[in-house]
Specification:
Blueprint: E1 13-14, E2 17-18, H1 22-56, H2 66-75, H3 77-111, H4 113-127, H5 131-142, H6 147-170, H7 175-183, H8 188-223, H9 232-241, H10 245-273
Antiparallel strand pairs: 1-2
């Protein structure tokens, strides 16, 4: 009597060992396709920039070449790393504080209609306050030599988009899903964690991606109104005062790389947390 048939083993091996998962290659190919447009665009812009400066004889005081900026960046890397750390820790601290506060306030406001109608205009008002107006105030409150001063400026800038997106996301549950959970008499906390939060995640991460860029901008602007002498903003002021314009651009390059890294971490977390649509 013949042996019963069995289902094919998922871990099929070939002559050289286990066969590779075809989905892994698909994910790598998808990532490369997503990276190709921004990388090619960046190379094109840098090539046009280099050619325009050299071709038109633009002085470095107005606009240095990308190649000279990279040389200055590599030559002053230790000091730039220290400046980015000083500014970056305020940016990261304020990013997390502003994001957490905005999500909490948005979650509470989304629960009560009357509170949402009152909080949104106040959030708009806070979001319209210029950074240059808040930085001196926080310096007075927390001391210009405290990391909490600059972190508070960053937190205020990050707070508003997180507040608005959280309210929008938590309020965007499909009517059919809302009817279903009401018919099942689910506890309110379960509705929040199992239905509203998953629905709001794309909105929340959209605010976090925007906040990642705003956090770096706010931290650097706050540096110009006080803070540590090793900060990026103070470093830029010093280089400009000594007519080292290429060095100032190198600091801007370092800040751009830091901002891209923070944005990339948020995007990576979004990929792991938010399920793919479609």
């Amino acid at each position: 009597m013949s042996a019963p048939a069995t289902a094919p083993d998922a871990s099929v091996t070939g002559p050289a060992g286990p066969l590779a998962d075809p989905r892994a290659g698909g994910r790598v190919g998808s990532s490369l396709r997503e990276l190709a447009p921004p990388v090619l665009t960046a190379f094109l812009v840098l090539a046009l920039w280099e050619g325009a400066v050299r071709g038109f004889g633009i002085r470095p005081i107005l606009l240095p070449t990308p190649s000279s900026i990279v040389v200055a960046f590599l030559g002053d890397l230790p000091r730039l790393a220290d400046a980015i750390w000083t500014t970056g820790r305020a940016a990261i601290l304020g990013f997390f504080i502003g994001g957490a506060a905005g999500f909490t306030a948005g979650a509470v406001a989304a629960r009560f209609t009357w509170l949402r109608e009152g909080v949104l205009p106040m959030g708009v008002a806070f979001g319209a306050i210029p950074i240059v107006a808040t930085a001196p105030i926080f310096n007075l409150w927390f001391s210009a030599l405290s990391v909490w001063s600059n972190a508070s400026v960053v937190a205020l800038v990050v707070f508003f988009p997180m507040l608005v997106n959280t309210i929008t996301g938590l309020s965007s549950v499909a009517p059919g899903h809302a009817e279903l959970v009401r018919s099942l008499a689910m506890p309110r906390w379960s509705v929040f964690t199992k239905l509203q939060v998953p629905t709001a995640l794309p909105f929340v991460f959209g605010a976090l991606r925007l906040g990642a860029a705003l956090a770096v901008i706010a931290a650097v602007v706050a540096d110009f109104f006080g803070g540590f002498r090793s900060s990026s903003g103070f470093f830029i002021k010093t280089l400009m005062a000594t007519a080292d314009y290429t060095g100032a651009w190198a600091t801007v390059l370092a800040l751009c790389l830091f901002g891209l890294s923070l944005y990339g971490l948020v995007a990576l977390a979004e990929r792991r947390v938010v399920p793919e649509q479609g």
